[in-house]
Amino acid sequence: MSEIIVASPADFHVHLRQGNMAKLVTPHVRLGGFSLAYVMPNLKPPITTTSQALAYKAELESIDPTVEYLMTLYLSPDLTPDEIFKAKEAGIVGVKSYPRGVTTNSDGGIESYEMYYPVFEAMQRVDMVLNLHGEIPSDTKTNTHILNAEPKFLTHLHSLHKAFPTLRIVLEHATTRAAVEAVKACGSTVACTITAHHLELTVDDWAGQSFNFCKPVAKFPDDREALREVIREGHPRFFLGSDSAPHPVTSKSTSTPTQGCAAGIYTSPILLPLMAHLLESFGALDKLEGFVSNFGRRFYHQELSTENAENVILRPVGACNVEKEYHAEEQGVVPFWAGKELHWEIVRS
Amino acid sequence: MSEIIVASPADFHVHLRQGNMAKLVTPHVRLGGFSLAYVMPNLKPPITTTSQALAYKAELESIDPTVEYLMTLYLSPDLTPDEIFKAKEAGIVGVKSYPRGVTTNSDGGIESYEMYYPVFEAMQRVDMVLNLHGEIPSDTKTNTHILNAEPKFLTHLHSLHKAFPTLRIVLEHATTRAAVEAVKACGSTVACTITAHHLELTVDDWAGQSFNFCKPVAKFPDDREALREVIREGHPRFFLGSDSAPHPVTSKSTSTPTQGCAAGIYTSPILLPLMAHLLESFGALDKLEGFVSNFGRRFYHQELSTENAENVILRPVGACNVEKEYHAEEQGVVPFWAGKELHWEIVRS
């Protein structure tokens, strides 16, 4: 097995947090082999305005100026078409919709997407991207739960795509065969991110194992197979968004009867070697560069030129053990695959 | 709301452990209002012989002699028809099949029930009960996982019932609508236990919350509704088996990347008030005595006479907070519903 060259890997869904946690994890984007990070806006408070997004971007650049940060605003009722125009001018790329933000009504909640149509109209006009967390809220009355929340969301994806056919939409962190099929059935303006961990985990892995617990939860073996298939196929509208989400180690390791553990899996610092390892495991290593760089860059209009492409070289290794924990100041974060072996590593010059 | 009298509650599926843990939890059967415990044999080593079962029964009686302990043997290839006859003579009531014990072959595993047919034949002859942990092992190749492991087991239930029509069989801790329907479709020799916690929890409750994690895992809202319906219906072949399973508090609260938390929910010390609370919550309080005493006793031929019936009185209370933890020696166990309110309590004389 020989070396693999990947041009400028881009992670189109990552959580970089704030304060000390941001200081710890932001450099891990580069450590993991990536030079572009599409940064989630779910801070406290959330990033809802252009000026907040620019200030956050400046914070991240002050931590690691070598990475390109693309910003997305948190969709909320305060977001106006005017703010969209302002955001576009400032270079902000997208708007992220979380289910919680649209579930002010009791049942169904996401029906209220229609209240955002003027915003989406403005986004479509200026060619911004709508990032969808594609789950509807659990509801015992309708037998809606964390395992069918994504399939039940897909009607909303189709409605939005139909109402805004030229609006670029990304269904984030797809976990089900139903989601893969839904995105495939849409036109060229609809894409889909897939995380590293959902290519490996199934429901059995997070049952009683909080370090494998994330939202959306990993689904069934057949769903995982659908994610793998679409990557093997080299479908250009499916690309990496790691959803790498750091949490302090104790909030991952420990529950009390009244407080469960945090949802999130942290893959940033090992992301490119992990992707090579996983894609190799299911026969898709030849699709690595498309999946982790070209496909997403093309959809997001972040294509590389021969001048700005930054090659990252991976080489096969017998066994490279993943760190058990990353520390800085008083923060500690346990990565996915902690202590386990990867068979690829980045050649550092 | 007035008092409720329940004659001699019987828990037809409970884990009482060994050593210090047994000393802590065995008295909780009585504390929870129960005078009969059908005791699981999955100790280390498992209870596979009559003499082991009798010794274990004596250990439990030495801890609390006021409870009647019914014993069941762990099904393994060592169990012979002769041992069945011996067990029957010694008053042992049943044989428990765990999926692991029958999954020596790689795929499907439980096909190998047929190797036990001579044992089942002997059990049928002497009228012992077969207790089934009704799940097949997870297998990614067949898309078998912890959420469909029970429905996929049900063909085995039907095969066993057909092969041994007069063998009394209990499908333990049913969690799905499919299981309820399968048991209903069987003849009078097939019954089903239901736990307290599966009447309350769904998959959303144990995702990231290890104190709600047990096997079989709680399923979907519609499955929970099926369990509640069959109790509301007062179906006499569905009765309580708590599957109360104590684990040391740290093994419930804490995961590491290589070690998940223990599966099991502990309900013994609050069981009768909890059952009243839960059945009241879904409109089945009038079925309480049938579900927690009469139905199971009838199936197990443990009917009460007017002489030996021991009435337990429940009274409604505004709020009775469940203990946050039970301690003894170096053992600590967190009960289900820890710190939460129950609206019924046992009248202690």
Automatic annotation (TrEMBL), chains A, B:
Zinc as UniProt keyword: yes
Protein name: dihydroorotase
Metabolic or biological pathway, per its Swiss-Prot or TrEMBL entry: Pyrimidine metabolism; UMP biosynthesis via de novo pathway; (S)-dihydroorotate from bicarbonate: step 3/3
Organism: Favolaschia claudopus
Keywords of this entry: Hydrolase, Metal-binding, Pyrimidine biosynthesis, Zinc
Keyword match Metal-binding: yes
NCBIfam families, per database record: pyrC_dimer (TIGR00856)
GO cellular component, one term: cytoplasm
Every Amidohydrolase-related domain range: 10-252
